[in-house]
Design goal:
5-stranded antiparallel β-sheet; 4 helices; 31% helix; binds zinc ion
Amino acid sequence: MTDCIFCALQHAQATLLDANELAYAVLDIAPIRPGHTLIIPRQHVEDFFELSAEVQMAMLELANRLAKALKVVCNPLRMGMLVSGFDVAHAHLHLVPIHDVHDISSKVLLEGGKLRMPDDQLQQLRGQLHLQLQGPPDELARN
Ligand SMILES: [Zn+2]
């Protein structure tokens, strides 16, 4: 799918937060909270629940690694994760550092309370997380 932003984004090395053979992660540019991360399969499948278990596990492996880094860097009360699928028609997980029970409910979205992260802040946060992850994704993880 050449017109799918998530199919294209996996090749934008500078924006990748983490990656493995089957999936990659980026910071959401319109986060619920700073550190809101999207975990995206490299394969174009619209529905998370239509992905193979192997791909789902690869996504969860990234979620586990990133949750540990996000806890240190963003200091949330909890880490939240959800699948909604209403925004981009390419399966993805939302991994969100949450500070309030409504951070992961639909309240923030419905009330238009999502943030807009400037590029320099995204870059700074990505750098902090790469430090926690001990480096950006290596060449082997690229497709
Ligand atoms: Zn796609």
